[in-house]
Recover the amino acids of this structure.
């Protein structure tokens, strides 16, 4: 049974930083492209970032480049999202996702349950 468990969400002031983690189990983690998505209240889920199995190729939503950094530790089966200089519009539920074809635009095969990030102004 595949499980993706996010952690690290919470309340942060605008301009601050937060690091999200996603611990994976039940899959060959090092074989999967991993990604982060988010969903703000009243909006559709949107892509945030992804990286390939080795972490050598990363891709970000244009609006987030330079502020967010995605990374992974295959020895720990964990993917991270470092969020810097956060803004109130970054407030959302953040979801971890895994998929073989994720780096080719295919939808994720697995999703986490999400972690809430709230940025106060």
């Amino acid at each position: 049974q595949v499980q993706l468990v996010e952690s690290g969400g919470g309340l942060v002031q605008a301009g601050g930083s937060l690091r999200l983690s996603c611990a994976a189990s039940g899959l060959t983690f090092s074989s999967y492209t991993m990604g982060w998505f988010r969903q703000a209240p009243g909006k559709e889920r949107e892509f945030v970032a992804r990286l390939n199995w080795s972490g050598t190729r990363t891709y970000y939503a244009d609006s987030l480049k330079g502020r967010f950094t995605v990374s992974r530790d295959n020895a720990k089966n964990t993917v991270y999202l470092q969020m810097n200089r956060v803004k109130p519009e970054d407030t959302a539920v953040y979801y971890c996702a895994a998929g073989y074809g994720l780096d080719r635009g295919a939808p994720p095969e697995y999703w986490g349950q999400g972690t809430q990030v709230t940025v106060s102004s």
Observations:
- The mean pLDDT is 96.
